[in-house]
Amino acid sequence: MLHFLQRLVAGRDETGASAVEYGLLLAAIAAIVAAILLLLGPQVKASFQSSCDAIKTGNNGGTAATCT
């Protein structure tokens, strides 16, 4: 009987990821994306603002562009 229980326990295959592991992986990826957005956000905003300013000053007789 003991030998049967040992084989039963040893025969379990617990490979593969569970839902908890997938959730932890998703949370880690979300944290990395949020950190990147927080770090690069001001630089991206400044880049868009300088592009918008260049469009406003160089309209060559067309209608004025507006930046919000």
How is this structure best summarized?
The chain has helices at residues 2-10, 19-57. By secondary structure, it is mainly α.
How does this structure look, described?
The protein has 68 residues and is mainly alpha-helical. It has one domain (1-58). 71% of the residues lie in helices and 0% in strands. It is built from 2 helices and no strands. It has helices spanning 2-10, 19-57. The mean pLDDT is 82. The chain crosses the membrane at residues 20-40. Pfam families: Flp_Fap. Keywords: Membrane, Transmembrane, Transmembrane helix.
Features:
68 residues, mainly alpha, 2 helices, membrane
Topology:
Layout lengths: L1 H9 L8 H39 L11
Please tell me what the overall shape is: rod-shaped
Query: What percent of the residues sit in helical stretches (DSSP H or I)?
Result: over 70%
The helix-strand sequence is: HH
Note the gap between the termini: 77 Å
How many DSSP helices? 2
Structural class: mainly alpha
Largest sheet: none
**Amount of beta strand:** under 5%
Rg to the nearest angstrom?
A: 28 Å
**Unreliable residue runs:** none
Q: Indicate the mean pLDDT.
A: 82
How many individual domains? 1
